[in-house]
């Protein structure tokens, strides 16, 4: 789902008032999650969206969250200052501190630097592990492991399909949004195709799939039920 904020001007919801501020990111997140209410979904968020107020609002709607927190980029309103500053004593890799408020957990985990996570989707006492090629296994709360696993999906998507995004230098912003949306739609269509029975009949590569799709849209090739 794609959300484009079009409102302009100096009003409370205008871009001038919300640009580069947590309010705009929260507005986008709420819009994208409108259809997720009451389904017990877990939403993973980056630092610009993660906030206590947003997560508590989502929880009331039956949406649970796990997000990376940044003292520079995140809205840290309502969070304990002691968890937002780094401890003076050195810490070993894998060590972490936890503060809780109801179902909400704020986790400060150390791995060559301090990483903070806010979640109401995972118990802070559940243990997980991060596997590094050189360092081996690093202990962590389950929320950290889950966030790392879901973040890797984005990286895999970028690695596999970033070169198939339509390259176009638009004159207007809407043109850039249009071609971006088309590129995502085609890439997602290919992922769904690989999950379908048709993929076992004819295994098209991403390039072959795109070529066939264009021909079908232009009416240059007949389609068959098996495809």
TrEMBL record:
GO terms for molecular function: transposase activity. This is PGBD5 protein. GO terms for cellular component: nucleus. Residues 20-190 form the PiggyBac transposable element-derived protein domain. It comes from Nyctibius bracteatus. Pfam families: DDE_Tnp_1_7. The gene is Pgbd5. One of its GO terms (biological process) is non-replicative DNA transposition.
């Amino acid at each position: 789902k794609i959300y484009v904020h079009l409102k302009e001007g100096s009003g409370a919801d205008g871009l001038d008032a919300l640009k580069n501020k947590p309010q705009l990111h929260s507005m986008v997140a709420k819009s994208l999650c409108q259809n997720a209410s009451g389904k017990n979904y877990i939403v993973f968020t980056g630092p610009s969206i993660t906030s206590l107020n947003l997560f508590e609002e989502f929880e009331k709607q039956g949406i649970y969250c796990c997000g990376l927190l940044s003292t520079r980029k995140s809205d840290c309103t309502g969070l304990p200052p002691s968890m937002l500053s780094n401890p003076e004593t050195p810490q070993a890799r894998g060590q972490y501190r936890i503060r809780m408020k109801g179902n909400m957990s704020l986790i400060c985990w150390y791995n060559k630097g301090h990483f903070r996570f806010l979640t109401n989707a995972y118990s802070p006492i559940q243990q997980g592990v991060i596997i590094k090629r050189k360092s081996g296994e690093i202990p962590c709360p389950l929320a950290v492991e889950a966030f790392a696993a879901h973040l890797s999906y984005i990286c895999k998507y970028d690695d596999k399909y970033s070169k198939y995004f339509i390259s176009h230098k638009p004159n207007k912003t809407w043109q850039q949004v249009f071609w971006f949306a088309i590129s995502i739609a085609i890439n997602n269509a290919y992922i769904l195709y690989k999950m379908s029975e048709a993929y076992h009949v004819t295994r098209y590569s991403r390039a072959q799939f795109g070529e066939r799709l264009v021909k079908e849209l232009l009416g240059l090739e007949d389609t068959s039920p098996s495809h």
